[in-house]
Amino acid sequence: MKTLTVRKIDTVPTAADIPAAFEKAQVSWQAVDVVDWPEEFPYKPEMVYAIAYDDDSILISYRVNEDCIRAEAKADGGRVWEDSCCEFFFQPDDKGYYNIECNCAGTLLLAFGSGRNDREQASAATMALIERTATLGRGSFGLRHGKFSWMLNLRIPLKVFFRHHLTSLQGLTCRANFYKCGDKTVAHFLSWNRVGTPSPDFHQPKYFGEIKFE
């Protein structure tokens, strides 16, 4: 199981400020490079992420290089996993976990539950609290082939974790995983911590890694 220490940094006002704040604080980048089902889905785009936190938010930046992009989900709560998508699955305790899935245009999905089949989707108002910036722009678009490099930044307030009452992350040890997928691009399924199922299934908390908020 992989482990990662998440640092606290000075308050970051908006998602647009995350890249500069991470550079100033020298927040390290982590690779999402495990191809979990290589025989059926061998395609491996490049993805790295950086994560930190401030007084009231988790801060994440993704960088991706890939040969095919798509952003057809037009509103939060849609089928973003079919697009060029980065995902953060977060389990604060043993009650269940949140999945925050965001396509390359910044459209996202947030839900909570104990497994794949009992997800409770957050309200549109709650999802709207997650600030995001996308270098490809915020408009939807269809399938495009070529060489693409893009960045996505998320500022995730603690209050969006709607089945918990998180007021501080300091000293907390949690389980989590990070994923890159795109079911309707050149199909691919990459993870930070390896998933040991016979077929693609990211909703596997037993395969999450560990993150420690210092």
Helix/strand layout:
Blueprint: E1 3-6, H1 18-25, E2 30-31, E3 34-35, E4 46-53, E5 57-71, E6 85-93, E7 96-103, E8 108-113, E9 120-121, H2 124-128, E10 131-134, E11 141-157, E12 173-181, E13 189-191, E14 209-213
Parallel strand pairs: 1-14
Antiparallel strand pairs: 2-4, 3-13, 4-5, 5-11, 6-7, 6-12, 7-8, 8-9, 10-11, 12-13, 12-14
CATH architecture: Sandwich
N-to-C terminal Cα separation, in Å? 19 Å
Query: Quick one: CATH class?
Result: Mainly Beta
Question: Taking Cα atoms only, what radius of gyration do you get, to the nearest Å?
Answer: 16 Å
Share of residues in helices: under 10%
Low-confidence stretches: none
Keywords:
Immunoglobulin-like, nine-stranded mixed sheet, five-stranded antiparallel sheet, globular, 214 residues, mainly beta, 14 strands, 2 helices
A few lines on this structure:
This protein has two helices and 14 strands, in the order βαββββββββαβββββ.
Report on this structure.
This protein has 214 residues and is mainly β. It has one domain: Immunoglobulin-like (Sandwich), CATH 2.60.40.1190. Helix content is 6%, strand content 44%. It is built from 2 helices and 14 strands. The protein has helices at residues 18-25, 124-128; strands spanning 3-6, 30-31, 34-35, 46-53, 57-71, 85-93, 96-103, 108-113, 120-121, 131-134, 141-157, 173-181, 189-191, 209-213. The strands form 2 sheets. Strands 1, 3, 6, 7, 8, 9, 12, 13 and 14 form a 9-stranded mixed sheet that branches. A hairpin with a 2-residue loop joins strand 6 and strand 7 (96-103).
